[in-house]
Amino acid sequence: MKSKVALTGNEAVAQAMKQINPDVVAAYPITPQTEIVQIFSSFVANGEVDTEFVAVESEHSAMSAAIGAAAGGARAMTATSSQGLALMFEVVYIAASMRLPIVFPVVNRALSGPINIHCDHSDAMGLRDSGVIQLFSENAQEAYDNMIQAVRIAEHSDVRLPVMVNMDGFITSHAMDVLEVLDDETVRNFVGTYVPEDYLLDAENPISIGNFDMYDFYFEHKRQQVEAMKAAKEVIREIGKEFGRISGREYGLIESYKLDDADVAVVVLNSAAGTAKGVADELRANGVKAGVLKPRVYRPFPQDEIREALKGVKAVAVLDRAETFSTCGGPIFADIRNVLYDLKNDIKVVNYVYGLGGRDLRLEHVAQVFEELENIRKTGRVDETVKYLGLRE
Amino acid sequence: MATLKELSRVEERFVGGHRLCAGCGHGISVRMILNAVEDANVVVGCATGCLEVASTIYPYTAWNCSFIHNAFENAGATISGVEAAYRALKKRGKIDRDFKFIAFGGDGGTYDIGLQSLSGAMERGHNIVYVCLDNGAYMNTGIQRSSATPTGADTTTSPAGKVIPGKQQPRKDLTAIMAAHNISYAAQTAINNWQDVHKKAKKAIEVEGPAFLNVLSPCPRGWRYNTPDIVQITKLAVETRFWPLYEVENGKWKLNYKPKKYVPVEEFLKPQGRFRHLFKPGNEHLIKAIQEEVDSRWLALLERCGETPELPPR
Ligand SMILES: Cc1ncc(C[n+]2csc(CCOP(=O)(O)OP(=O)(O)O)c2C)c(N)n1
Ligand code: SF4
Ligand SMILES: [Mg+2]
């Protein structure tokens, strides 16, 4: 049974957590994630879940406790944003290397400094190389759906990795949206019970975890993490299909929007994809063959799907809501350009950094991007590879 | 209380094959404490430091029970998580065996970088024991000062130089800080007295809620004494009242050992290379200041324990 409800992104994520009813949640408040922790605490206080909620004294401890819990054999979660994720940095890598299936929503917010509470993706991008799976969500519906699928992806025996479920701070987390939620039983059946393989609380088979790993094994262990990331792609696809059967909403690694015959395309994560799709529709009405590519999964990187989706396009603009300070563009730009290089199709790829610290991305900004792409397509000339959108210069 | 003979028959949870230095206090402390666990499984948590690095070199382990090392500063939070998992899985009928949770951290991982994580774990009331293995410096990274390093000690980041004679600050009183969390049990012990260690470990393990043990765990490398003299050096720490043995049980402070006579602190300092510079002519005032620190701390402790605040007879 499904029902349409009006929820904010944070409420939708908390709702998913309630239905998953994990064994342990350890979390610490930070804007704009705070509501998730608050709402979940009220579920605990009112007996709507029987999760052990550990109200830790920092995000470093939140992830550390989640690691302890998951290593203990529990289904464990945490949640954070921005500075909280930055504080967790050290232990997120450890969670991944221990192959612990910890699911954690990250409500994307700019990193200090200067301090700011609004959306950008610098927090998530800071951990793109940590070995966790990163899912992105365009709206509250996707955040809810991703949370439920994340549990299965994380715990799959071919994967066993943490999964970070991203959504845009305030834009998605605080805006009321209409979405379809599944009934508790459907979710319960879908996520199933967690059966850990090797865990600390297995009295018959004690284990040591977190061992000191020298040059004779460390490299192989890192390589195994790569294998798990590779395997995750197929797992994500399978689970996306299975989720489609219970919800009517099927998920893959990317969403291709009107790319089949597109001349020009925008690549963008999270909520801005909605804006971009709206602009593409308008342009299509005026005869411009515009399309949008939204990676749902950013780590592992869906290079084959992206290459396939963009192979016929003449000019691509990658929109990055994070800066790398490399002076040669944002993080997604580097990845996309890398993937298209093999095609030798001379696809022009440009980069726009947008929305840092919560700066709005307006329809006219995206329209301007498409216009510039059309110019590139027509002239074959790129004047400037990396630009900033909506910035006073 | 178990006899030594009985204890020698307990199945060891920390076994040979580890690579701690010969005569390291950590191995002795850990065995003594784990031997006090009766009729339960154990999950050991461990902070980064000599103990972890020497006992879990992949693919080997010296731990005969479940063991988790996470990072340097988060043994408190990590063991909290394991304990929360235990409660959750037990409540949901997924496991039925009884477990105890014991975390070990060095003084660096406990007094300094891990203090917040430990404080949080204590405040939340997890049913855990946290054991600090205090050797008074960051030994694993090559003997740097910590806030547990004794006044005057020569370490690689508080070197005894031409102008500054070793560490200038007195030690942080961590056991008192832990007691101030109003936990069920906090105690200070030392390995020269196995009965004291055993009794306190047993209490810490058996009380409901969080417990803390601070164990003086000598490091022959960092302290630079004659390695076989570990029991003697620990005993001197206790007899000179540098390391008093006491416990705080449900808020009640109790002194566990009162030296019969006044042993000057220099007897503890003298056999150790880290204090050698203090014994150069002209540095008498430095030793005098250390003695004053020891004496005033001792008097304050006696007062807290409800004893007459007086120094032992000379
Ligand atoms: C965040 C972090 N900072 C620094 C280190 C380096 N480090 C590892 S062990 C250690 C010192 C350990 O000292 P202590 O806790 O006293 O344990 P000991 O080795 O003396 O038993 C340090 C500084 C680290 N591993 N992690
Ligand atoms: S350096 Fe010190 S603490 Fe480390 S193993 Fe050797 S004796 Fe033990
Ligand atoms: Mg130390």
From TrEMBL, chain A:
Residues 16-239 form the Pyruvate flavodoxin/ferredoxin oxidoreductase pyrimidine binding domain. GO terms for biological process: carboxylic acid metabolic process; response to oxidative stress. One of its GO terms (molecular function) is oxidoreductase activity, acting on the aldehyde or oxo group of donors. Residues 262-366 form the Pyruvate:ferredoxin oxidoreductase core domain. InterPro entries: PFOR_II, Pyruvate:ferred/Flavod_OxRd, Pyrv_Fd/Flavodoxin_OxRdtase_N, THDP-binding, Transketo_C/PFOR_II. The keyword Zinc-finger does not apply. The keyword DNA damage does not apply. Keywords: Oxidoreductase, Pyruvate. Belongs to the pyruvate:ferredoxin/flavodoxin oxidoreductase family. This is Pyruvate ferredoxin oxidoreductase, alpha subunit.
From TrEMBL, chain B:
InterPro entries: PorB-like, THDP-binding, TPP_enzyme_TPP-bd. Residues 146-167 are annotated as: Disordered. It comes from the Bacteria. The keyword Magnesium does not apply. Residues 146-159 have a biased composition (Polar residues). The keyword Oxidoreductase applies. Keywords: Oxidoreductase, Pyruvate. GO terms for molecular function: oxidoreductase activity; thiamine pyrophosphate binding. Residues 48-215 form the Thiamine pyrophosphate enzyme TPP-binding domain. This is Pyruvate ferredoxin oxidoreductase beta subunit. It comes from Thermosediminibacter litoriperuensis.
